[in-house]
Amino acid sequence: MTTGEVLSQSEIDALLAALSAGEMSAEELKKEEEGKRVKVYDFKRALRFSKDQIRSLTRIHENFARLLTTFFSAQLRTYVQISVASADQIPYEEFIRSIPKMTILNIFEVPPLNGHILIEVNPNIAYAMLDRVMGGRGTSMNKVDNLTEIETKIMSNLFDKAFSNLRDAWESVAEIDPIFTDFEVNPQFLQMISPNDTVVVISLNTQIGEASGMINICIPHVVLEPIIPKLSVHYWMQTQKKESLPEETKAIDRRIRFAKLPIIAELGSATITIQEFLQLEVGDVIELDQSIHQPLLIKVGDIPKFIGQPGKRNKKLAIQILDTFKGEENYNDE
């Protein structure tokens, strides 16, 4: 028992029974506790990610799970439910031992990040997906060692399209471009990284029709190393703050203020027939439907905005704004 460890009721009962029966004395218990104060550290299971960073990766892949649910629902046209079950950091060797000896393995490159991401799909759901794509009811089976070339091609195409959703899920921390590079069924043939290197494994609970299984996403530390600072809460809070900087608002305001708009002062309008239009010649006069005593309508980008009067300024034609345009009544009153 270590300091701060909480015992269950059955463990407490067993401990009290041992003390009562004389099998263990209080002094022996005290010595045993003192001897275990030093916590054993396993260097093979190095913890390179903080709990905060693991939580950030969990949030990213919760979004990825939603995107996958939408994609597979549309592609397979059956009930699909995918959600994050767990996220943990373990040695690569331990991950390989934890998955089936024969399973569906998809390897992706994620440039500009280095290294590869491994996505393992349990054969139960992989075959259910294949059966649905081929027009079946989604029956699950497990014969990975006997995959035909056609089955391999159909599966790899399906997973290539599905896992391209990683791009959208990761866009908040990195702009990646997932590239499907390999399809394998035997984990022992995969030597992506050293067995003792730390990887983050995100497990997704997956339900396809009546079949269920796991999708495991294995991300080596070397892939995440360049973006580790972006996985902290501090970075997320900083990003939120940058979105509302006053300098950006001022820059937009400045651009709007110096934008050029067409200004039109209408002297009036007239209606003529096509015959009269065809007979127009130089020197003809067209009578407008507006009195010289009425103000002119000023349009900004074809929208009536002001009323004004014509004149001259520095020997150039000009228009003086008298008021804002408030409709026909305001215009006719003038």
TrEMBL record:
Flagellar motor switch protein FliN-like C-terminal domain location: 255-323
The family this protein is said to belong to: Belongs to the FliM family.
- Which membrane topology describes this protein? Peripheral membrane protein
Q: Name one GO biological process term.
A: bacterial-type flagellum-dependent swarming motility
Q: Which GO terms describe its molecular function?
A: cytoskeletal motor activity
Per UniProt, subcellular location reads as: Bacterial flagellum basal body; Cell membrane
**Could you tell me which Pfam families the record lists for this protein?**
FliM, FliMN_C
**Matches recorded under PANTHER family:** FLAGELLAR MOTOR SWITCH PROTEIN FLIM (PTHR30034), YOP PROTEINS TRANSLOCATION PROTEIN Q (PTHR30034:SF6)
**Among its keywords, does the record have Disulfide bond?**
no
> What NCBIfam families does the database record attribute to this sequence?
fliM_switch (TIGR01397)
Superkingdom of origin organism: Bacteria
Per its UniProt record, what InterPro entries does this chain match? CheC-like_sf, Flag_FliM, FliN-like_C, SpoA-like_sf
Q: Which UniProt keywords apply?
A: Bacterial flagellum, Cell membrane, Cell projection, Chemotaxis, Cilium, Flagellar rotation, Flagellum, Membrane
* Gene Ontology terms: cellular component: bacterial-type flagellum basal body; plasma membrane
Protein name in the entry = Flagellar motor switch protein FliM
State where it is primarily located.
Answer: other
